[in-house]
Amino acid sequence: MLILRSLNELLDPIGGGPYISLYQPTHRHHPDNKQDLILFRNLVKQIEDSLSTQHPKASVATLLAPFHALAADSDFWNHTTEGIAVFGSDSFFRVTRLQRPTAELAIAADSFHIKPLLRVLQSAERFHVLSINRQTVRLFEGNRDHLDEADLAAEVPSTATDVVGEDSSAPVGTVRSVGGPGGAVPAGGAGAGGIRYSHGTKSAVIDQQTERFFREVDRTITEHHSKPTGLPLVLAALPEHHAMFRAVSHNAQLLAQGIEVNPDTLSLDELRVLAWAVIEPNYLQRLADFVDQFSAARNADQGSAELAEVAGAAVAGRVRVLLLEADRQIPGRIDMKTGAIQPEQQQDPQVDDMLDDLAEQVIRTGGEVIMVPALRMPVTTGLAAIYRF
């Protein structure tokens, strides 16, 4: 089983179609998770029935072999989260666990269906939490609903020892004495005419080593986690560690407000609640800013909420930001050469979602796609586009 690492794997997959996309809700704990595998097998059977009407039985069996292998992986089904997304073609198979429930969907089309995944991979709700003290660092990733520990990139030091070595708590200051001729200490020691000076007390040395550790953590987290994802970063640490970390940080994603308690004393859910309290105002403001930008752009004929108009602009590479209603689907196809739309009835799994096709095209041309809850969409058409020109 291969885990999905980036959205680009789905935008430009290896091999040919049909491209199978399967989404389903799952559960973390027993006995709720007992039905997860049954649902998965039912969705695979739904795809099999659809494919069998247009493809030879042997070809369908080859396409679905990795799906059946996943069904037999008991370890996978014993460690699920809130949902899964599974993608496969003739020479491609990827799985990703989701941190929020997803609607059931099984579709085989001429491209992968990515819109539900965008809510996880590109949602304005997602964030990182950096938990740090003088000795260790941990990184978490989540949203308003769930928080999970992330795997640190190999370049990120997980402990201070990785940066300052084994003697990370020992002072390295030197001691010199001033006394008799040539600096010699008279008999009786420093108290008998000499003065002993210690350069570098233990606490000062520890602070220096902590600063080195924090500086390296900041550099590597920035390069290998914050820049690739663009996610806001919430710092969770004791107040004195906040001051030291922020003094050396160059991470543009680090938020000014953080969690000023010892994160090691918090449960995962307590950490999530405190982090979301920091993130929510930024999230709501970001959505409000996009809505304002869209209103101004539409008034200046530099934006639209009409599917036919936005499809043509997306094919021409004109869409800078695309707001999509999170749970909305518009069945049909978009001609990616002309932008012409062809509405259809979603009567079987082979009919794709035009909003999904739009999202793919906007991402391919360097635009940003934001999944927006229905109540916060500025229009009722399910989409709102801001153009580059």
Structure, explained:
With 389 residues, the chain is an alpha+beta fold. It has three domains: 106 residues, Translation, Eukaryotic Peptide Chain Release Factor Subunit 1, Chain A, CATH 3.30.960.10; 113 residues, Nucleotidyltransferase, domain 5, CATH 3.30.420; 87 residues, 60s Ribosomal Protein L30, Chain: A (2-Layer Sandwich). The chain contains eleven helices and 16 strands. The strands form five sheets. It has a four-stranded antiparallel beta sheet, with helices on both faces. A four-stranded mixed beta sheet has the order 7-6-5-10. Strand 6 and strand 7 form a beta hairpin. The two termini are 43 Å apart.
Return the string of H and E elements. HEHHHEEEHEEEHEEHEHHEHEEEHEE
Task: Say what oligomer this is.
Answer: single chain
Domain unit count: 3
- Which value, in Å, is the CA radius of gyration? 28 Å
Going by helix content, strand content and strand pairing, the class is: alpha+beta
Which term fits the overall shape? globular
**How does the major sheet shape up?**
4 strands, antiparallel
What would CATH call the architecture of the largest domain?
2-Layer Sandwich
Estimate the mean pLDDT confidence: 86
**Beta-strand percentage range:** 15-25%
Q: For the largest sheet, list the strands in their spatial order.
A: 3-2-1-4
Helical coverage, percent range: 25-40%
Specify the number of helices. Answer: 11
Give the tally of β-strands: 16
The CATH topology of the largest domain comes to Nucleotidyltransferase, domain 5
Query: Stretches where pLDDT falls below 50 for ≥5 residues?
Result: 168-199
| Termini separation | 43 Å
CATH classification class of the largest domain: Alpha Beta
